[in-house]
Design goal:
- By secondary structure, this protein is of the alpha+beta class.
- It has eleven helices and five strands; from the N terminus they run ααααβαβααβαβαααβ.
- Strands 4-1-3-2-5 form a five-stranded antiparallel sheet.
- The longest helix is centred in the N-terminal third of the chain and has 20 residues.
- The radius of gyration is 20 Å and the shape is globular.
């Protein structure tokens, strides 16, 4: 390698390390943050408008497929399926490789149980271990920290390039229809999944809420599935939705007592860095365009079963 090329590569690495530590200030709108993605700023699920359109389309397919089920039948047949596949370094190639491995594992699990259907999504969440340690204050937050810690790549001991402290949590959420003999199929799915995800917390099969209409549950799940792993472009201390309470707690640690205009320009310590937003946006952009119609950009979906068709 000649000196000039080495110098360029070294400069790019230094720039990435610098962007890794630059975080957005409080009150910075998400659309403004996404501008660091350039031409891709408004084309991925990170964009509010894109996510809304995909959520509506997914809800329509859910309702068409399962909306007519009576509540008792839905409770018996349907599960909200979550798989925490792997925690990998913040590297696009490693994230892509992990996604493909997860897809293969999901397919093998499904192929072993007849008469089931699945519609779900691949999701990537940027996690920052030092930030989680700094901000975790309750049992639920400590649980997530422990789960992520146990999933760090053992062979690399969670190591990252100098100056990098973040990883990507590659995971899956979806609706699983067990059809007839649901109890036996539930157990069969859980047992086959243990071949690939052996830790008890890596696979979760949850029944729908009994206090909600089936259509409402399906609508909520459709919205949840396209929210993105870091829907507000901040680190999530809990599993589930982002919470402004987490941001308020971070401000308290800085001696602040409320959110408001007074914090203009004040760094949001829960914010993803510029480099993390760039990696997340790039990975999601490629994932969306990997399969399906170019107009639909639904490559992030995982589908299995004879009744399951691509969204039209």
């Amino acid at each position: 390698m000649d000196f000039k090329k080495l110098k360029v590569q070294s400069g790019e690495a230094a720039l990435r390390r610098m962007r890794q530590h630059i975080r957005f200030p409080i009150n910075k709108h998400k659309s403004t943050k996404l501008k660091v993605l350039g031409s891709r700023a408004g084309s991925t699920l990170l964009d509010k408008g894109v996510a809304k359109a995909h959520s509506a389309r997914l809800e329509k397919q859910f309702v068409n497929r399962w909306g007519e089920l009576k509540k008792n039948d839905a409770l018996e047949r349907l599960r909200f399926w979550t798989v925490l596949h792997a925690v990998v370094p913040l590297d696009e190639d490693e994230i892509a490789s992990s996604i493909e491995h997860m897809r293969s594992c999901l397919k093998l699990v499904c192929e072993g149980v007849k008469g089931i259907e699945v519609i779900g999504v691949v999701e990537i969440e940027i996690v920052n271990i030092p930030k989680m340690k700094q901000l975790a204050t309750n049992d639920e937050e400590a649980r997530k920290l422990n789960v992520i810690g146990e999933m760090l790549p053992a062979n690399k001991k969670g190591s990252l390039p100098t100056g990098f402290t973040s990883h990507a949590l590659v995971h899956f959420h979806g609706v699983l229809d067990l059809g007839m003999d649901s109890s036996e199929k539930h157990d069969a799915i859980a047992q086959r999944a243990k071949q690939f995800w052996e830790k008890s917390y890596q696979v979760e099969l949850k029944r729908f809420h009994s206090d909600k209409p089936v259509s409402k549950s399906l609508a909520n799940i459709a919205q949840y599935l396209v929210k993105g792993g870091n829907e507000s472009l901040i680190y999530k201390i809990n599993f589930g939705w982002d919470s402004v309470q987490e941001m308020e707690r971070a401000m308290m640690k800085k001696g602040k007592d409320k959110l408001g205009a007074d914090f203009e320009g004040f760094e949001n310590e829960l914010s993803l860095s510029i480099e993390e937003v760039k990696v997340l946006g790039s990975v999601l952009d490629k994932l969306m365009g990997s399969t399906g119609s170019k107009n639909l950009r639904n490559g992030y979906l995982f589908k299995y079963g004879q009744q399951v068709k691509w969204i039209g």
